[in-house]
Description:
The complex is a heterodimer.
Chain A: H1 6-35, H2 38-45, H3 59-69, H4 74-84, E1 100-106, E2 114-121, E3 133-140, H5 155-166, H6 174-196, H7 200-204, H8 213-227, H9 229-248, H10 257-271, H11 287-300, E4 307-313, E5 321-326, E6 339-342, E7 348-351, H12 357-370, H13 376-411, H14 415-443, H15 451-472, H16 475-478, H17 484-508, H18 512-518, H19 522-569
Antiparallel strand pairs in A: 1-2, 1-4, 2-3, 4-5, 5-6, 6-7
Helix pairs in contact in A: 1-5, 1-6, 1-13, 2-5, 2-19, 6-9, 8-13, 9-12, 13-14, 14-15, 14-17, 17-19
Chain B: H1 2-68, H2 73-97, H3 101-128
Helix pairs in contact in B: 1-2, 1-3, 2-3
Amino acid sequence: MQFNSTRQGMAWLHTWLGLILGFVLMVCFFFGALSVFDREIDRWAIPETRFDPQPMPSFDNLLMGVFERIEPDEAEYKRMMPEYHDASAGEMTPRLELPADEYWAYTTHRDPVLRMGAGFRVPFPANPEGHNHIHGNTTIDPRTGLSVPDHHLKIGSEWFYPLHYSLNLNWNRIGFFIVGIAGFFMLVALISGVWIHRKIFRELFTFRRHKSKQRSILDMHNMTGVVALPFHFFFAFTGLIIFVAFYYMPVTNTMLEPLHSAQQAIEAEEMGLPHERAGIPAPMASVDAMVAEAKRRWAARDMAGEVGFLQMHHVGDQNAYVSIYRAGSDRVALVGEGIHFNGVTGDVLREDPPHSLAESIGDFLAGLHLQHFEHWFLRWLYVIGGLLGCACIATGFMFFVEKRKQQHAKAGSQGSRIVDAFAVTTVTGMVIAAIAMLIANRIIPSATEGKGDIEKLVFWSVWALSFLHAIWRSAAVALAKTNPAWREQTVLIAILGAVAVIANWISTGDHLIKTIFTDPYWAVAGVDLSLLAGSLIALLAVKKMTATHKTERKQETSQEKLATGEAAYE
Amino acid sequence: MTVIISIECEPLSLVLSQANRRIHNSVVFMSTLLSFTHQSLGPVVTAFLGGYLFTWGFVALTVTSTVTLGWGFHTAEHTAFLLAFPVFLLVFFWLFLSRKTLLTHAVAYGGGVLMTAASVWLQSMLLAQGA
């Protein structure tokens, strides 16, 4: 395509790619912002887990018993077992008889509950070199060792969080790729946006709310884009970096896999960690003693010493070893300073050396995105940055429509109308779907089988309904007017936000006076307050939209009168 | 009777004209969409694929050449992936905005293929040496 100037080409890229992929980016930014407090949303959604964050409990006295109770996942067994198993070598092992090969447990400074899992070996594997594991996971109350029921969906960490990087479209990982392409074009849109708006510093302080609607929207788009420009850029960039090697450009896991495997074998030999099982059964040493030794070594290096991730390899075998990693609460970079122990003798096998410069930069970028650190103010800045991204994209949609709707109305084109309906669905519809899911979570009784699946269904159904509503009410845009769906759905947000808070109060007894003053529990109070803040902002927006609507109606009426007068005069 | 027919016919003609207008609008919309997809998104897609292929080759060659120079595999891998998106963006913009479309695309696609081939050759050399 030929453009008269680079600036014109950049403007084209910014407008059209921003529009097409903005709908995906809106989902990434909104649910990414919610993911900053995913564990807190989990607490809100599963009242049984509303207690204080706990350190990693005793492995010997509590975790070992839980690990032994974990079963291989039934669906994964059915799906993967025929692929992993070599039928000509021997009979397929029944699911509950698969031997455990690996245990892991993971927690953060924000987790009251503990996530645990086991990897089960497949006897007679088709590919003995492969990672032939059938997995089983559980979440427990670390104070008692009791499991949190499986049908309780962790709405924050298992629904909103994956939604922002995979859209929860898991067929052939299509969601990952859509988000990856959108992330790349986010960078393109940012660079082209900076290129076309040369007076960036001035944009920071420009918001002419009394000018025309189109001008105000453009000012808002520029301001929200510029004020958080570094945030938008590093989030898109680091998000891409996290998945690039696995999904987006798997050079080293496909084409260069032979070299990768050969190098890994050399590295494993250098590290002194057994790559394979010895095939000789052996009893395990005390893991609690290993944890104490790891903490002593971290303390000697003046590091915060809580365990974040613990993994036991080759369980019950002479080659067993235990890897213990530090919780990442005191720094940005995602490094665990792992210490590895012989699982049978309890001796230290190895301490991870400092990473190379390139690896350290990678750790820092991944840590910057995943924010495992303990810094509440910074976490809130992340939320604000994410919401500014949403505001930037939403005003981009609105500007697109405002700029074209008069022209489209005259030409009889439906372009603005369709874009506007999609914008309503992605901006207000998405928020309604998220709050509706939270309300469903509080209304559906805790014991209901498949509760999580019903909540997911509510989410998608409400979002689809918001689209139908936006389309149904969009005729006004074809006449160069504002789609009333914007106002109607915003009213709904204002109502639903308050309903969710009340539903939480009625179903659990945790009202705001209790969670803030009498028995403080900030995870739940924070979610409630955020819902109410959302309601309040929606109310203010409705007030503003109603005023604008009235002004438009007045102008229309006076124009009609003028036209009637002119017709009568003629 | 005549009155009744005229009452019945007027809305019908209105409905028909509205239907015609809708069909016309839909046809205009679809043709605009098709032309937009073909003429405008086509160059974006070719620039994206060219950028991707070039970056694939760049990553592969960076990893294999630095491992040949004695770097650890994971250091080489991290370095290559840190540089991947800046390279991808540069090549994408270059291809999309260039006036000499054929030449730039030939350089990017050809460069990507050549670097990929070179990295495969380097890998086989490294494996033969027992790397």
